[in-house]
Amino acid sequence: MKFTALSFGFALTLAFGPSLAFLAASPDAGEWKAPGEGDDRGPCPMLNTLANHGYLPRNGRGITKDLAVKVLDEILNWDVSVVSDLYDFAQPTNPAPNATTINLKELTTHNILEHDASLSRQDSEFGPADIFNEQIWNETIAYFTSDTIDVEMATKARTARTTAAAATNAHFTFPQLGANFQYGETAAYQFVYGNWNLGAENIKERILTPRKYIEYFFSTFA
Question: Most exposed of 8, 20, 66, 99 (fewest Cβ within 10 Å)?
Answer without folding.
Answer: 66
